[in-house]
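Following up on my earlier thread - several people asked me to post the actual chain instead of describing it. Fair enough. Here it is, all 299 residues.
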Amino acid sequence: MKKWKAALIAVVVGGLVMTSIVSNVNASNQGAKLESKKFKNTEIEYKSDFGVIWDIIKERFSIERKVPVPVKDIPVLPMTSQQIMDAPNNSAVKLGHSSIMLKLEGQIVMIDPVFSDRASPVQWAGPKRFHQPPIATKDIQQIDVVIISHDHYDHLDKGTIKAIKDKVGTFLVPLNVGKHLVDWGVTAEKVVELDWWQSKQVGGVEFTATPTQHFSGRGLLDRDETLWASWVINSPESKIFFSGDSGYFGGFKEIGEKFGPFDLTFIETGAYNRLWSEIHMMPEESVQAHLDLQGKVMV
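Reply from S.P.:
Thanks for posting it. Predicted structure:
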């Protein structure tokens, strides 16, 4: 087993995890845009109709339900840009929620970076982070690769993308997510969109978009118009899996059979609830996903 120095800076409760597959896309047509406007999952058709949304709202504001909030400051180990550059290969730092930084083959890789105070269309309302990141975007000098799992606000943050876009070499995103980045000022040449099972080699590390069970959308009218994905990251010294948001499904076993065993898996958990059990995992399901993937160490 490869030695990993995983600095778990913080664990933030909440967020969505998704899984789906593209409809009407020929898998042999590399990089093709889907012909239909909608993507879909492989095993379920997830629909959050008004009834489900209303149930979530009622539960969220129910007097019986107490939303846990930290009563003390969550300790955060500050980082400097020099520490990032000096980090050894096969290092992993959890920046908060689903945001992760990796050091692989001398490259800095960030997954779902969110540095804003709120995961929301506006910064005066919406879910607020429990602690600040260990480093500010202005202090980050260079990011070789940014990976995005899907376009929900707690995984794709406009403010963060605009702050780091000129420091990033390559953005790897699921199909149709690239339009968000370009709209926010990212140079189109930096953006690589991948369908499930497609790969991109960057500086000796291979990145593969793989299925997950979720959904996408940033507003009322763009539901499932962009793909969601998990990611396989394969370097000469280690193999990593990042689940993104997802419900438990048979795809984990398939990914494990194709790419496993994995030295390190980042598996979503924490957003579990009976109302969205199809698109988020219960803790025991997260553990089973790790086993299906043939993982050695799970975060």
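The mean pLDDT is 84. That should answer part of your original question.
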